[in-house]
Amino acid sequence: MTVPPTATSAAPGAPAVGAPVGAPRRPAPVRPPPPAPGGAPAAAAAAARVVARLRAAGCVFAEDEAALLLEAAGDDTAALETLVARRAAGEPLEHLLGWVELDGERWAVAPGVFVPRQRSLLLVAEAEAIGAAAHARRADGGPVLVDLCCGAGVLGAVVARRLARRGVRAALHAADVDPAATAVAARNVAPWAGSVTTGDLYAALPAGLRGRVDVLLCHAPYVPTAAIATMPPEAREHEPRVALDGGADGLDVVRRAVAGAPGWLAPGGALLFEVGEGQVAAATAAVAAAGLAPRVLRDDEAGALAVVGTAPAPDDADRDGTDLERTEGDGTEHTDGDAAGRRAGGAARA
Ligand SMILES: C[S@@+](CC[C@H](N)C(=O)[O-])C[C@H]1O[C@@H](n2cnc3c(N)ncnc32)[C@H](O)[C@@H]1O
Q1: Which CATH architecture is the domain 118-343 placed in?
Q2: Residue with the nearest Cα to atom 1 of ligand 1?
């Protein structure tokens, strides 16, 4: 998980790979705001006042954020005042807008729910590839895709949407322990006819999925407890603790997810999750101990680091080693993730 900068401290630039805190947020390309009463000069003056207030509050991308807040408020000056005041006080822009842009589309988010990050497109791209490969090798329909720790459900929905564009219809199941998250996820997942359930990790999944999951996406919390205090206020004060706190070394939830994965994965299916830079060795060891083949994915530009654990496939003995050839000597695959998706911008978290 990555976390955006505080509204008052961020500067543009690439985040450290896998850094659990402090990644910068890309500004939003905006649609032009509607003309204000009184015509263009009045609208320009109103916009300039909003920009000035946001800049005074320390917003790095004040112009972009002002345009988005103006768009959200429309002609309602009281609503605009409220939005600007809340943003100046440090509320995440996405919570105020009610949406985040990821992979070129706006998805619902809400106060009290984790805001999906652009760097998670690394997980999305790998999940799409694994889902497409599962579809190609299986004769019994589309791949089964689970978004565990789904938050707003955006990652699973993006993967399902990408697969659909390739003519692959995935069966999407999303689950999270937080009912506030699953309430939002239900909105994002609905177009993909996926199920959304609430509960602790695998306990929330339909039992019928055991042994059938091709793609087990699990962007769980992985910030060490002691590091929470160093996180930007936008995350620390406005995203739920359960979405951030991964326990003493950050891997409490991840370890449980890894240990349970073999019982749910289909042959050749894979678990995918994000980690921080200092967590790779422990995470890959846990994956191997669970009987899954670990791989590490890295996208330096996005500041993303992820681990994949693949269940043995029936034809493993016949494999040609293609995956290994893509992997460097340290077991890390370097990728540009989906730069086009990241560039899509919007009210987006880096
Ligand atoms: C870092 S957020 C990621 C959310 C979402 N996957 C995304 O990328 O936007 C972690 C999510 O894990 C959920 N979570 C934490 N512990 C959990 C558990 N034991 N079982 C299920 N979900 C859990 C949180 O509620 C939160 O929504």
Answers
A1: 3-Layer(aba) Sandwich (3.40)
A2: 221
